[in-house]
């Protein structure tokens, strides 16, 4: 009789747990990860650099998919456009407010994101799932713009720059929503897209860890350093929201990887008659060497 691996035993036990226990285990795992990072990373600013670097790696996975596999199926053009938007604004703020290594990483991410947008719009348009990528982005762009007018940093920088900085923080927090909506519509996510979204989840977690650890290390003084009013609280909330938005997908990603599956299948059954989504997955799982 074949002996079951410890990983299989643990994952099987987690699957049998009720939803409340799964949430508790997820929160406990997050706290354990934060404590681990706090102990092993001496300069916590490196967590933010690592987050941006992971984002770049995730975008490189998309570039590989677009150039080698020649398809953009499963990729949300609207998410890429929102990403390019907040990166462009953040890059502007970085140039005029604080030029550092983040500026270089943001430049690399923006250039690669713009290239992905070009490939989807022009070179691989025939494989774009436009009918599934149906999230209305003005529902998030306009509220973020309005919110940034009223709640933004209280530093000594020019007010327009402070509003821009707030806008990119808010927009970044929800820029992945169109991608999640597309994946919800097709129910099955092929490997390269799932790797990219998981990389975004890791990047968001590292960024949140940077702020949370800094908050505890400074015993709350970080909030006053960011300014006064609602702005410091919204910065922290935006970071946490980004992480929780992607946490559910990351769970199913890890579950699929540990189960030896290439494609990530979300809980609901695929949409009846969605031959395009099924064909994408069958093509990847049948011909790719992962």
UniProtKB/TrEMBL annotation:
Transcription regulation in keyword set: no
Topology relative to the membrane: Multi-pass membrane protein
Signal peptide: none
Keyword Transport: yes
Family indicated by similarity: Belongs to the ERD2 family.
Keyword set, alphabetical order: Endoplasmic reticulum, ER-Golgi transport, Membrane, Protein transport, Receptor, Transmembrane, Transmembrane helix, Transport
Transmembrane segments: 21-41, 103-122, 134-152, 158-177, 197-216, 228-254
InterPro entries xref list: ER_ret_rcpt (IPR000133)
Primary site of residence: endoplasmic reticulum
Lineage: superkingdom: Eukaryota
Localization in the cell: Endoplasmic reticulum membrane
Species of provenance: Hibiscus sabdariffa (roselle)
Cross-referenced Pfam families: ER_lumen_recept
Annotated protein name in UniProt: ER lumen protein retaining receptor
Lineage: Eukaryota, Viridiplantae, Streptophyta, Embryophyta, Tracheophyta
């Amino acid at each position: 009789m074949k002996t079951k691996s410890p990983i299989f035993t643990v994952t099987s036990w987690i699957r049998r747990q009720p939803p409340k226990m799964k949430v508790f285990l997820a929160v406990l795992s997050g706290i354990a990860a934060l404590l681990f990072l706090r102990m092993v990373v001496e300069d916590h600013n490196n967590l933010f650099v690592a987050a941006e670097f992971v984002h770049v790696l995730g975008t490189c996975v998309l570039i590989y998919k677009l150039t080698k596999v020649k398809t953009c199926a499963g990729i949300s053009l609207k998410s890429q456009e929102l990403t390019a938007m907040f990166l462009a604004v953040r890059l502007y703020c970085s140039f005029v407010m604080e030029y550092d290594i983040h500026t270089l990483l943001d430049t690399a991410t923006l250039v690669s994101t713009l290239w992905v947008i070009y490939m989807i719009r022009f070179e691989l348009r025939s494989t774009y799932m436009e009918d599934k990528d149906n999230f209305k982005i003005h529902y998030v762009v306009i509220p973020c713009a309005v919110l940034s007018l009223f709640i933004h940093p209280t530093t000594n920088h020019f007010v327009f720059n402070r509003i821009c900085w707030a806008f990119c923080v808010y927009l970044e927090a929800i820029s992945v929503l169109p991608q999640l909506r597309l994946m919800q519509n097709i129910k099955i996510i092929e490997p390269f897209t799932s790797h990219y979204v998981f990389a975004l989840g890791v990047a968001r977690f590292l960024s949140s860890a940077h702020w949370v650890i800094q908050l505890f290390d400074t015993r709350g003084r970080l909030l006053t350093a960011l300014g006064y009013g609602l702005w410091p609280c919204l910065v922290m909330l935006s970071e946490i929201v980004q992480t929780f938005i992607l946490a559910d997908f990351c769970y199913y990603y890890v579950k699929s990887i540990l189960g030896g599956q290439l494609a990530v299948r979300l809980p609901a059954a695929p949409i009846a008659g969605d031959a395009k989504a099924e064909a994408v997955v069958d093509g990847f799982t049948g011909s790719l060497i992962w």
